[in-house]
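Ex. 9. Protein: methylmalonate-semialdehyde dehydrogenase (CoA acylating).
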Amino acid sequence: MNSVANNPSVKLLINGQFLESQSQQWRSVINPATQKVLARVPFATPAEMQAAVASAQAAFPAWSKTAIGTRARIFLKYQQLIRENMSELAALLTAEQGKTLADAEGDIFRGLEVVEHAASIGNLQMGEMANNVAAGVDTYTLNQPLGVCAGITPFNFPAMIPLWMFPMAIACGNTFILKPSEQDPMVTMRLCELAMQAGIPAGVLNVVHGGEEIVNAICDHPVIKAVSFVGSTKVGTHVYQRATLAGKRAQCMMGAKNHAVVLADANKQQTLNNLAGAAFGAAGQRCMALPVVILVGEAQAWVGDLVEKAKTLSVNAGAEADTDIGPLISCTAKLRVEQLIDSGLQQGATLLLDGRDVRVAGYPEGNFVGPTIFSNVRTEMRIYQEEIFGPVLCILHAANLAEAIAIINANAHGNGTAIFTQSGAAARTFQEQVDVGQIGINVPIPVPVPLFSFTGSRASKLGDLGPYGKQVIQFYTQTKTITSRWFDDELAAGKVNTTISLK
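Predicted structure tokens for methylmalonate-semialdehyde dehydrogenase (CoA acylating):
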């Protein structure tokens, strides 16, 4: 751990107070374009973790009884504050994560959409009622909050994914403990400051930092009722197994290997633009990135055009104007991506565009990898099997749509897929037959808006319910069903009924 005492420290949020940690274990937050240390983040102590849980537990009774309109108005205020501070938030995000300023604003905006949706909680959390299900008997449901919930978020979307989690959980009447990524927690903390400014009461939102020990504490603590996770498959599987074994609800969004199928009738220039943007945007560090393209039939002739399109993209620090691709999050991430590129060559793939050893003027120490494209990729190769999380695109060929669908369905992951075509019949066949949770038709990254839920599937997800949208209301609430009968005192009591009938 790098403990640089003269750098500003990232605070904990416990019981409404931003506190200096007493930890002896710290990690540096590093600008990935310059290697400059921006801050130091603590690995919270067991006592600090316990204090966060106790704060959330103490705040729950009052918050769960807070009027639904009061909760909604807090999130109306919160979305206004996010909009007013968008430029500051984007600059902070770019400094610590590396993505371009435009992409940073997109990161924040997609989270902001969920905050706006949380302000609609009055419509989202309503139960159901059936009148006279039997003589004089009504049945209705209440969707009540669970209690203390927790979220564990990744480095690649330090604004959007925290905003997927705590606004919806809190709007439903729960209290929340957030553990941001220790690699880039600064923009997350600024969002939490704005949330407190919007009126979230003390103890309702708490933040702790750390690594494996804090993750395990979240999974194990008996007070915490539900855990939401976004990150790697390895950690997500661990979280799901450990949390559910402890009796908690868990939803884990994990690794991916998304595919795009391109038919020859697709609009060529729009398709090439979409493929390049989805494959190389955010330096490929998206769970919904596009690392595999399957060119079908005559579309196989587009390989050269795709390479030329990729060559037009600018690699630079995210804060620089006209940058298309910023640095990877860390030196370790860069090394891993380069090793995977090496493996592609060793296993016989054809390297059409090599992004290794890219040089960026003014940023000699940045974690840069340029657009990289392989053809002649086979499905047993590491570059196809593993999630690269870098700007590397694998091109496969298929004779027809059925063959392309078979390739996708044989892959373990089911986060997202897309088809590019002008044929409605082909698109309908694709959406019906492909076994993937989120499908784009001429849309390369089919992440749904918050009116719907994120519905990755198979090896990309553990848990039945996705984040945000209608599904997350079910995740963060307990359905209570009430069956009631009110007797008229003037009616005869009748005889004893020993059956289960309500007649």
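Check your answer against this statement. The longest strand covers residues 137-145.
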